[in-house]
């Protein structure tokens, strides 16, 4: 049985995720179906943590950007760095992850302008790595 992408993300982050109301707008031009399907369930996914003193659940960072941010970030990187693909998240250090038209995921380093393969697919990108493997690769 295939796990839904949101289930994979939740498992990878130990359940420390916040979901949002579904995106109800039209599919933006160029937005891959895999991302659009996810955004129709939750318009973005946020990593959370429990504050050690208060027990309050607090946001950490975006795991998957909301639709408006995907559109803005993709346009920025296309115009500024001539990237191809859809920006959907970042590595936390300022480098975006892009979903390419062939379905693979790459990390883009704006300093050197290079792309580094990150996973064979969006679902592989959010799958829990098996010991002895690189995420998404055998």
What features would you describe in this structure?
By secondary structure, this protein is an alpha+beta fold. Helices cover 25% and strands 27% of the residues. It is built from four helices and seven strands; from the N terminus they run H-E-H-E-E-H-E-E-E-E-H. The chain has helices at residues 5-12, 33-39, 67-81, 122-125; strands at 17-19, 45-50, 57-64, 86-90, 96-99, 105-109, 114-119. The strands form two sheets. Strands 4-5-6-7 form a four-stranded antiparallel beta sheet. Strands 1-2-3 form a three-stranded antiparallel beta sheet, with no helix packed on it. The two termini are 20 Å apart. The model is unreliable at 131-138 (pLDDT under 50).
Q: Key terms for this structure?
A:
three-stranded antiparallel β-sheet; 138 residues; disordered C terminus; four-stranded antiparallel β-sheet; 25% helix; alpha+beta
Largest sheet: 4 strands, antiparallel
H/I helix tally: 4
The quaternary organization reads as single chain
Instruction: Kindly report the average pLDDT value.
Output: 90
Question: H/E series, N to C?
Answer: HEHEEHEEEEH
């Amino acid at each position: 049985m295939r796990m839904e992408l949101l289930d994979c993300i939740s498992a990878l982050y130990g359940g420390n995720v916040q979901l949002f109301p579904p995106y109800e707008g039209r599919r933006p031009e160029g937005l891959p179906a895999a991302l659009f399907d996810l955004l129709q369930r939750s318009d973005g996914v946020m990593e959370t943590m429990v504050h050690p003193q208060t027990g309050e659940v607090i946001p950490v960072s975006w795991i998957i950007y909301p639709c408006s941010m995907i559109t803005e970030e993709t346009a920025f990187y296309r115009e500024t760095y001539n990237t191809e693909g859809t920006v959907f998240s970042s590595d936390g250090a300022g480098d975006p992850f892009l979903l390419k038209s062939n379905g693979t995921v790459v990390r883009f380093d704006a300093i050197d302008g290079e792309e580094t393969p990150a996973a064979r697919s969006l679902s592989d990108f959010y799958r829990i790595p098996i010991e002895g493997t690189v995420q998404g690769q055998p």
